[in-house]
Amino acid sequence: MALKADALLLLCGVTVGLPAVAAAADGERYDPYAKMATGAHRYDMREVLQSRGKFVAEPVEQPDLSLLDTLPLSARASEPQAPGQLPEGWVQIGEVVQRREIAEGRKQIDPKPLPAWEDIEGNQYPRKGTVFLNFNGGMLKAGDDNSAENKSTLARHNHPYPVFNGSEATALTLIQAVQQDLETLGVRVLYLNRPSKTVPYTMAMVGGSWSDTNISSPAGGVAPGTDCEDRDQRNVVYAFDSSSATISQEIAHAWGLDHTLGSDRIMSYQAGNNKHFGDNCQDLCEEQCQGPGTIGCRLIHEIYCGVDSEQQNDLAELAKIFGTPEPDTEPPTVNILPEGDVIELEVGSDIEVKADIHDNYGGVGWRIKVSRDGEVALDEVDYEKVGAWYFANLETGVYEVVLEAEDHAEHVVQDKLTIIVGTPEAPTSTAGDSEGDSEGSDSTGALDSEGDDAGGSASDGATTDDGPGALDKGGCECRSTDQGAGGALGLPLLGLWLAHRARRRRRA
C-alpha cells in the first residue's frame, strides 16, 4: 500500500509528520476486538452463596417511548459538562474517535481474524444482528463497550444520559428510517423492548449532546472506531442530532465502515436527501473530511475494492457480516458437559462445567445460572465466550446448573445438570414417594412443555418463539427474563429429590 509521507496529523495541538497508511511496524497481528479468553470462569461457591446476589445479573430495564410525550423538556436536559477526556489509547480527530495506534499510522487492523477466533461459537459469519435504539437514556458506565451492561468507551462514568429531546412520533419516524436503511441485512431493529443480556447487540443512544460523552469537542454523533467487521458485537454508539442518517452512520461505524464521499451516502458528511448504504466501491473520505488517520478499517475495504483503491463498498461489507434478512427458524443446540443428568459429589468438591453450543448463524450468546436448593446464587452472561466454569468448594445441597443460549430470533434453549453435594435432607411431602410417581410427574429435569425426559440433549432443549419473558407451560422457566434472583430457575426440592432417586446417577 502506498504511503503518504507528507500527511499531517493534528493531535492535541501538536502537528507531526506521519504516514496516513502504514502496516504494523513490528509486523505483528493487530486485532484488538477479536479477543480469545482462556481458562474457565472460576467461582468459590462459598463466596457465591454468601454474597446474596452479587453474582446475579441485574434486570433489564425496558424502554417506554410514551415518556417522550409526557416528560417535560426541562426534565430531559442534562447539566452542562466540561469537555471530556477519552480513555488512554484513544484520540479524537474532528468528529472521529480512533485508536491512537491507528490514527498515528503505526498499526492496521488485520483484515482476517485468526481461524481459532472464528471457530468460537457466535463469531462466525454471516451472523444475525440486533440494533437497540435507546430514546430513554439511562445511567452509563465507562469501560470497554458492553451494550447489555450500559458500559461504553465513550461514556462519562455514572453519568445519566438524557432522554431524547423529541416526541414519540418523531422517534417513530427515525426508527422507521433506520429500519429501511438496514432492511436488506439480517438485522432486527428493536425499540419497544430491549434485548436480553444474553444476545449480543449494538445500542444507539439517540439524543443528548456531545458533552454527555467523554469526547472533547462537538460532533453530530460518535462511535468507537476500528471494530472492523463488528468483531466485538456489543458496541455503544451515539447520535446527538435528529437525523436518521446520523444514527445509521454511527451504527455502521461500530461495524467497521468509514466515511466516504457522496451526498446520497449514509457514510458521507455531504448534505443530501434519501441517503443509503452504497452497493459500489465509493471513494473514502479521509483528508477531505476529518483528516489523515481517520480510516480505521482500510485493509478490510481493500478486500472488496482492491489494494490501494482507497474505496469502500458499504453493502458488500455489511452483507458479509449479517447476510440477508431471511428468517432464522432453527434454534441453537445446547449441551452441558460433563454428560449426565445428575452428578453426586462430596462436600467441598470442585467441578468444571463446559458448554457445547452450536447455531446455524453466528451471533448466538449464552449464560450460566446456578441455584442451590431452589434459590438462584449465580446468573451471569458469558460475555468473554469462554464456555467453561469452574465451581470450587461446593457445600451441601442440591444444585441446578442451567446453560441457556439465545439467538437473534429469540430462540432460547436450555440444558441443565443437577449436582447433589453431600446428603441433602429430603423434604417432607405428602405426595407419593414412589419411583413411579417421580416419573409420572415429569420431574426428570425436562425443560419443555412436551414432557421430554431426555434431560437437555442438544436437540431436545426447550425452545419457544414467544417474546422475552415467556414461561414454559410445564412450569419451568425456559426464557431469559433478566429479572435477577429468585426461585423460578430451581425445581421444587421434592422434584429434585425424586428425580435423583429415579434416574441414572453418576458419582464423580
Short note summarizing the structure:
This protein is of the alpha/beta class and 508 residues long. The chain is built from 10 helices and 24 strands.
- In spatial order, strands of the major sheet run 20-19-22-23-17-24
Radius of gyration, in Å, reads 25 Å
Instruction: Kindly estimate the percentage of residues that lie in beta strands according to DSSP.
Output: 15-25%
Helix content: 10-25%
What is the helix tally? 10
Distance linking N and C termini: 58 Å
What form results from the Cα inertia axes? globular
Low-confidence stretches: 1-26, 429-508
Q: How many strands appear in the DSSP assignment?
A: 24
Q: Which structural class do the helices and strands define?
A: alpha/beta
Average pLDDT value? 82
**Largest sheet composition:** 6 strands, mixed
Commentary on this structure:
- The chain is an alpha/beta fold.
- Helices cover 15% and strands 22% of the residues.
- It contains 10 helices and 24 strands.
- It has helices spanning 45-51, 67-70, 100-103, 115-118, 168-181, 244-254, 298-305, 314-322, 435-440, 493-502; strands at residues 8-11, 14-17, 41-44, 90-93, 96-99, 129-134, 138-142, 151-152, 159-161, 187-190, 202-206, 221-222, 236-239, 282-283, 311-312, 333-337, 342-345, 351-358, 365-372, 375-381, 388-392, 397-406, 412-421, 506-507.
- The chain has a 6-stranded mixed beta sheet with strand order 20-19-22-23-17-24.
- Helix 5 (168-181) crosses helix 6.
- The chain is globular and about 70 Å long.
- It starts with 7 loop residues before the first strand and ends with a strand.
